[in-house]
Amino acid sequence: MMLIKFSPSKRVGCLAAFALLATQSIGLSAAPASADRVVQIAQGGRSDTSAVTRTIQAAIDACGTAGGGRVVIPAGDYSVAPIQLCSNVELHIDKGATLQFSRNFADYELMRGVGDDVEPTLRSPISGDDLSNIAITGEGVIDGQGDAWRMVKRIKLTPEAWTALVKGGGVTNAEGTMWYPNEVVRDHQGALDKLLAANPPAPLEAFGPYRVLLRPRLLKLTNCKNVRLEGITVKNSPNWNVHLELCEDVQISRITVFTEEWAQNGDGIDIESCRNVVLTDSKVDAGDDSICLKSGKDEAGRLRGRPTENVTIKNCSIGTGHGGIVIGSEMSGGVRDVFVENCVMKGTGAGLRFKSVRGRGGVVENINISDCKMTDIDGAAILFDLYYATKKGEDAVAKPVTEATPQFRNFHLSNITCESAKLAFQIRGLPEMPVRDIVLEHIKIKADKAGMITFSDGIVCKDVHVEAADGSLVAIQDPTQVSLASCSGFQK
Question: b/e string for 332-355 if b means 16 or more Cβ within 10 A?
Answer without folding.
Answer: bbbbbebbbbebbbbbbbbbbbbb
